[in-house]
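Reopening this ticket.

The earlier resolution said the output was attached, but the attachment link was broken on my side. Pasting everything inline this time so it's all in one place.
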Amino acid sequence: MFIDSHCHIDFPDLAVREDELIANMRAQQVSHALCVSVNIEQWPRVTAMAGRHDNVFASLGVHPDYEDVTEPDVAQLVKLSDHPRVVAIGETGLDYFRLTGDLAWQRARFRTHIRAARECGKPLIIHTRSAAEDTLAIMREEKAHEVGGVMHCFTESLEVAEAAIDMGFCISFSGIVTFKNAQSLRDVARAIPARAMLIETDSPYLAPVPYRGKMNEPSFVPHVAAELARVRDMSLDDVARVTSDNFFRVFSDAARQAGRIGVAA
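Inline output:
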């Protein structure tokens, strides 16, 4: 069975197909999915989605790209994270690709999320794009290693991956790893230890080959796993098993809800 460690199936274009998405997951042996929050305003629909399906988990956070939204403080994040379906804080992080200028507010938001994660004891879902140096620096300064988590939709260098792994983070690969021009990312996927590997769709974005250009969904995540199996010379079953075990090790609240207590470290 496969797990989609990061998706946005609450987004309207996917939510209108909710029952179909869940059925497609089942048909493709995708046992669970983590529906990830991007802002506080839309967070209730994330938890509602998770509440309707035992195999869908939720996170709580504000994406670094969102400017004109509620800016939560640590206390609010800690309070809201007590929701029974919330298994992680995020997505959070830094993105210097889409936004320019004085991004001090992004760095402050990132620090707030890390502090909240440490206070509530939940792992972090981190987004970083064109900001690896600052992302790692803030992770170190704010002691993100105390909770660990995942570097989602990873596209950075092996050195960045290793630095994150040293802080207790897994590296999650999306459909990008299947793209023709993504050889450097496949090299990272080949090099990191299996214990640090996760798979995701980031749906509705970044559909893997052979669906590139179409709307992505959790049932496509086996194609990401198949590419990792190819580049690492592993069986698909082994990639499915390892990434599922890694998911439940990182997201311990999800493990308890799924009855997966005792997943090996």
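Reporter confirms the inline version is readable. The chain has one domain: 2-257. The CA atoms of residues 12 and 69 lie 18 Å apart.
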